[in-house]
Amino acid sequence: MLLGFGVSLLAVFPKVAVSQTTPYEEPVFLQGNPQTAEILYEAWKSKPFCSCVTYVRQFRDFPPIGMAKNLPITSKTPSVGAIMVTSESYAGHVALVIGVTDTTVTIKEANFVPCQKDERTLNINDKRIKGYYE
Question: HSE of 104 in the Cβ direction (CA atoms, 13 Å)?
Fold first, then answer.
């Protein structure tokens, strides 16, 4: 079972049974035992790089969106500080724009490589870029 952002509950807690989660920034545990849910939630909070949405939210505030692909596009032009929205997975992907040139956009992101943070530079016309949230 996935936590909605690429991390399996069974990989984190192989002996804990959880019935289901929803694909939102914060997983909703439908397990009847509140202690189990609390333990799993604390484990999820300790791995902030396993969700691009949670990582970007550390730098910019934006409305609750669930999956990254649901962040509204407000601009097609990148600017430093904007949030880039891409189509790089079924859930989409978001990243913080930290640099722009005439031909490239540099982003700071998490979970492009599972549970890691990094920086990348993309061509400004990359077809994966859906747009930006200003």
Answer: 8
Any long-range contacts for 19-27 (C-beta under 8 Å, 24+ apart)?
Answer: 22/66, 23/66, 23/67, 23/91, 24/64, 24/66, 24/67, 25/51, 25/53, 25/54, 25/57, 25/64, 25/65, 25/66, 27/3
What is d(CA 134, CA 102) in angstroms, rounded to the nearest whole number?
Answer: 19
- For residues 22 and 52, what is the distance between their CA atoms, to the nearest angstrom? 16
Contacts of 63 (CB under 8 A, 6+ apart): 72
Whole-number Å distance between alpha carbons of 88 and 70: 13
For residues 27 and 43, the answer to whether their CB atoms sit within 8 Å is no
| Gap between the Cα atoms of 133 and 108, Å rounded | 15
Which one is the CATH code of 50-133: 3.30.70.240, 3.40.50.620, 3.90.1720.10, 3.90.198.10? 3.90.1720.10
pLDDT in tens, 77-98: 999 999 999 999 999 999 999 9
The structure's pTM equals 0.67
